[in-house]
Design goal:
single chain, alpha+beta, Nuclear Transport Factor 2, Chain: A, Elastase, domain 1, 4 domains, 6-stranded antiparallel beta sheet, 12 helices, 27 strands, 23% helix, 21% strand, EC 3.4.24.-, Peptidase_M4/M1_CTD_sf, metalloprotease, zinc ion binding
Amino acid sequence: MKQIRLLVFTWSFLTFSLATSHNLSPGHRENFGPELNHRRYEAPSIIHYGTFSDFSTADPQEIAIDFVSTKLHPIAKFIVKDSYKSDHNGVTHVYFKQVVNDLIVANADLNVNVDRFGRIISYGDSFVIPRSKKTSAQEFFGNSYRTQIILGNDAGVDSVLLPGRHVTSEEESYYHINDQVGEVISPGKALESFAHFINKEIPHPEKIEYMEYSSLDGSDQALFLSNVPFALSDVRMSQSYIQLDDQSLQLTWDIQVEMEDNWYNAQLNAYTGDVISLIDWVSDATYNVFPLGVNDPSDGKRELLEDPYDIVASPSGWHTQGKKNFTKTVGNNVYAHENLKGKHDWEDNYRPEGGDLLVFDFPLDLTQSPKTYIDASVTNLFYWNNLIHDLFYRYGFDEVAGNFQQDNHGKGGKGKDAVIANAQDGSGFNNANFATPPDGKNGKMRMYVWDVVNPWRDGDLESGIIIHEYAHGISTRLTGGPANSNCLGWGEAGGMGEGWGDFFATILRINSTIDRTKNFGMGDWANGGEGIRKYMYSTSLKTNPETFSYLDKPGYWGVHAKGAVWAELLYEVYWNLVDKHGFTSEWFPPTDNHPTSLAKWYSEKSLEKKIKTPKHGNTLALQLVVDAMKLQPCRPSFIDARNAIIQADEILTDGENSCEIWRGFAKRGVGLKAKVIGSTPWGGGIRKESYTVPEKL
């Protein structure tokens, strides 16, 4: 088998979208790929695995590695892609990728969760199942050799030498590898095939230049192709395997292409150029702003807020990067600016000036065209990106978890990835989107003007839209680990990527005067009073009748409709928790040096155990949902994500709220015996509803 030894990373774009097709970009393609019905998410009853004499002092990552290599996959090779601990509950999350013939298997993911006592509490597993079991891992690689690969053969490009591996018959006996007849196509041919798939042309392939990249230790190798006419940056190509639904392995070209309206990561058959899997990573001082709790201009007035940053999440404030200070809407967490022309370049775009005193107080006249109040719009966008960064930082989306910061202050993770936020982006209307590449690459938010009413309205002034978009970055980096942005591409997983955004946007506008009888829409103000979802979010089955089986209906095949059902499920759980524990308007936890405040915000029982459990229902709901994202497997189902939330509560409260959580899910059909019969790669199948909860409750 001919192959190039190239390891890859991945990224992901998701979108905030109307149900109407005119909002899709002309080159939009639905995400797709193998379903992998053998994948699983388990919470084992066995407490300890391995040979450690004292699990409480052992390294949690080593415990996870020992568990995978001795109990789950004794003959598998793998690498650790990410590993970090959530400080508030002491759980360590370790993320693995499988390696076969020295190549990454793109969709073979495994995550293990280890509690503070060194116990394996859950794991998600989609590793390739070998054809024959062995008792221990073994190396089967022959001597290294170099394979000559002709790049851009038809264009007359010089050949490039890349290291390869000899595959012995003994290695082949473990996995069913599709060794097709013929030669592996060149990178140039693979790029041409992908261009044809997305309806793009390469009129002058001879102008494409190829550069070989290899990390210092040789573990990461790729080709970078420049001068590709439809790409905004160099196209990255490497080789990997992808596992198909029959659990065979197909050698592929892995392609990453950043475009104006898309950011694709595709897997192409290395022999034929056929596209096997496709993920688009685009989902469709003093500040006068609409503050937390005010969703849009119809919901309340702007307020002049002084130094609203959180000292823990942003210790140097919102206008500092390392030793650099700024007086414009730039800082460690976000670059906010106008992009009226819809261009790709953003570094020199216009940004409001706050002066030496950092006063961002600009007029806002909603009877005029949005471009007349661009300063106010950018300021509001800057405020909300920073606020979301700070808030979710306090709930566990920090540096090691893959958050968006330019400078990580030596706290782990990868920096240089502050959000690039475009206000009034001229590349579209009536929408917004967020691009989420892996940790270390900038997230990109594009906010559009809405022309549904006259005068037009600016999405930058509706915080729910901003929250929804940022939530794509949060859920993508927390699910499957910061280095893997391909876990929420399609089906129920893709739907939940949309649903979490709606859920966060909805609960963060709730105040102490609101109860469970209140209904909420999504995107109401920007869209002229008509929400962009089919039903409002409500605990009434008459107002919102959506249940689990609605996902089987034709109108629910898309990720946005699926996401609305998931957000509704979470909304039911939210109100069960608030009814039990009450509500606090203080969304931000206190700092550790205020013991009196700590006792008011966290449960006293948890503080005695040296963990931190929010005592109010609204903050507890937010914490459990964030924790569950870290626990759940790559490409989770609704049932996987439900189980992760239940387990998050077991970790944080010893299961004190399992009844409320189960009742919330069971009310709309995702009870104890819910399941999907005959699932398909795009999220189809027949959903069997269940309205029961465990008997012990």
